[in-house]
Structures are given as C-alpha cells and as structure tokens.
Amino acid sequence: MIDIDNRLDESIRIDTQATYLEAQSNPRERRYVFAYTINIYNAGDEPAQLLTRHWLITDADGRIQEVHGDGVIGEQPHILPGESHTYSSGAIIETPVGTMEGRYGMVTPAGTRFDAAIPVFRLAVPGVLN
To answer: Using an 8 Å Cβ cutoff, are 102 and 118 in contact?
Structure first.
C-alpha cells in the first residue's frame, strides 16, 4: 500500500514564467513555441523528491497535449526545506494562446507520496490578448 499525505502538497510552492520564442515560431504553419521556467520551492518541514510530472497543455482550439514522464529535464531533484529547484523547458502549440497546468509526483524520505499541483499559467504571443 502506498502512503499518500494530501497535506504535503501544500508545502510545495510552484511559480511559473512563460516566454514566447518568436524566432522558433512560424504562425503560417500554426507553430507557436514557448519557453517556460518553473521554480519549485519546498516550504515544508521535510525534504521532498520530485519523481514524476504530468502536464496538460491546451491550445485555444481546445486541443490538449498530455505529457507524463519521470522527473524534469532528466532529473529527479531532492528539494530540502527552505530550498528550491528551478528549471526551464519548452512547449509548442498550434494557436497564439494556450495554457499549461499539471502536477508533480513527489515523495518524502519516509516514502510518503503526494502530488504538488502546478497552477494553470498562460502561453500567449505578446500583444495578442490586448
């Protein structure tokens, strides 16, 4: 039986920042490329290791890309209390606006598993929403 503690998910704070990569995008071919940076901060009292990721990437036409995998950018970082892990990656969608959200599967040294929610954030070509 896997021990799951839902209180621990609140101990992980996730901040996001997305940037449109115009040079890698091609709107005529419905290719919009975004880079995003994620900061995962452990506000809890015990270490946590990020084991898995689950993303839902949705474009303005309602198309959803679902991504599952181990770790982030080839790593399964251990994050001590009061410390953070930051990484950057990218996403490609077919519309100038979309969203990303998801969760990280985490585990404590005692083997307690929990999910840390990644709040929804917007992917948008600058000026398209003004």
So the answer is: yes
**Shortest CA distance to 47 belongs to which of 7, 81, 83, 12?**
81
pLDDT given at position 129: 74
Q: What's this model's pTM, rounded to 2 decimal places?
A: 0.89
Q: In this structure, what are the phi and psi dihedrals at residue 129, rounded to the nearest 5 degrees? A: -100, 0
Q: Give me the DSSP letters along 104-123.
A: EEEE-TT--EEEEEEEEEEE
pLDDT digits (tens, 9 = 90+) for 93-112: 999 999 999 999 999 999 99
Q: For residue 23, give the amino acid letter.
A: A
The β-bridge partners of 121 are: 100
**Are residues 55 and 104 in contact, defined by beta-carbon separation less than 8 angstroms?**
no
- Total residue count of the chain as it appears in this document: 130
What Rg, from alpha-carbon coordinates, does the chain have? 16
**1 pLDDT band (50/70/90 cuts)?**
very low
